[in-house]
Amino acid sequence: MKHVQRIPAPIKTKNTPLVNVRQLCFLIAFMLPLSKLLETPSLFAKNALGDLLLPAFLQFLLQFVGLGALLFITSKTGKSIFQLLEERLGNVAVKGVYLLLAVYYLFSALLPLLDAEKFIHAVFYDTAPSRFTFTPFFFLSAFVCVKSLRSFARIADLCLPVFLISFLGIILMSVGKSDFQSLLPWFEFPASKIATAVKNTTVHFSDALLLLPFLTSSDYKKGDAKKVMSAFGLGALFVLLFLATFYGIYTTLAPRQHYAFSKIAQYFSALKTVGRIDLLLVYLLTAILLLVTILPILLSCHCLQTVFGEGLKVTFSIAINVGLLVFVLYCNKYYNLFYEVFTKSLWWIFPAFSVGLPLLCLFLLIGENKLKTKRKRKGKFKKRGTIYAR
Predict the structure, then answer these.
(1) Is 327 in contact with 110 (CB distance < 8 Å)?
(2) ∠ CA 302-305-311 to the nearest 5 degrees?
């Protein structure tokens, strides 16, 4: 008889390697903020100028709601989204959701990949580099994609000191040159401008859905929701602090200042004597940035492996990374076109998945108490050896 593979969320047993909640919190607070410090500051400034903190706050609020919905479901039921889906809709539905997520994660990685390549070329090279300069990134990505989510989460322990030293070092070098009064008065721009700023930056905000596989594979306990949400709030504060400092330095020139975290410390007066030591901190942050860029690719591979089996993980990793390498090599010259498509036409996909999908999953809680009662009764009747016709 042919064995049929079932695809529920990983069952938490003593032998199952689970993601530690501490590492998950470190990933949220000290890794994910890097994805908001590259192109996002100039995009916010382009549409909202001194009011850039408001659309940023609204973006984090939306992700906060999405993440809160996922944590509420887990806290309420003690199960993951995928386990609830299997109970309600069956194994086929779980497979379908995994495949849909795999496509979404891959789609969400495209524009950040082009951003990362342009950033490496602009910051690390004084002359025009070879078109294959970014190729080693995909070797690293292919290696990471064959690892488990637990292995990736362990990196967060190492990123904690690296992020704090580098980020706070850059902020301390920059804050003296920043005029925070340029952020005033607040609410200077109409709501339509703020909404445009939110719409044009949704591609960089998928935090809630990026964390879904980690929540499914974590050693979640009662009370961990507060830790996760606090970590998310801390990460948001880091980004908001950076945006305020960034705009205080460049003010009306901010919309044209791409790759923000590599530039804001360059006006520190001591650098004239000791040289651009701030670039050492930029390089450290870049290492974390590259890992965050790999994250959605890893999650796409993880979803495909869950559906089709762990034996194909190397195949998926190689196929996806080769495809993305070809995409970057031949589509980087069309960056402006991709930017227009992602921010003007396809922007709605990101909030629909990262916020809408978690909120939609709240419907899985309907009737959960009745199901629990039925299961308890069924177990009780089975124990007594009594058969009841239902």
Answers:
(1) yes
(2) 135
Residue among 25, 34, 60 at smallest CA distance from 166: 34
Q: Is the dihedral of CA 33, 194, 263, 119 positive or negative?
A: positive
pLDDT of residue 317: 96
- Does the pLDDT of residue 264 top 50, yes or no? yes
Instruction: Please give the model's pTM, rounded to 2 decimal places.
Output: 0.89
Phi then psi dihedrals of residue 18, to 5 deg: -110, 155
| Residue length of the chain | 390
59 token code pair: 């973006």
| pLDDT given for residue 103 in this prediction | 96
Q: Is residue 309 part of a domain?
A: yes
* Coil, strand or helix at 19: strand
* CA–CA distance, 262 with 283 (Å, rounded to integer): 9
Q: Of the candidates 174, 191, 194, 176, which has an alpha carbon nearest to the alpha carbon of residue 57? A: 194
Q: Provide the CATH number for the domain around residue 312.
A: 1.20.1740.10
DSSP H helices in the chain: 21-30, 40-48, 53-77, 81-89, 91-124, 135-145, 149-175, 191-199, 207-210, 212-216, 224-250, 271-274, 278-308, 313-331, 335-340, 349-351, 357-360, 368-384
311-356 residue pLDDT tens: 899 999 999 999 999 999 999 889 999 999 998 899 999 999 999 9
Q: Which two tokens stand for residue 249?
A: 């330095």
* pLDDT tens digits, one per residue of 171-229: 999 998 888 888 888 888 888 889 999 999 999 999 999 999 998 888 778 788 999 99
Q: Which residues pair with 218 in a beta bridge?
A: 19
- Asked if residue 373 belongs to a domain, the reply is yes
Q: How many domains does the chain have?
A: 1
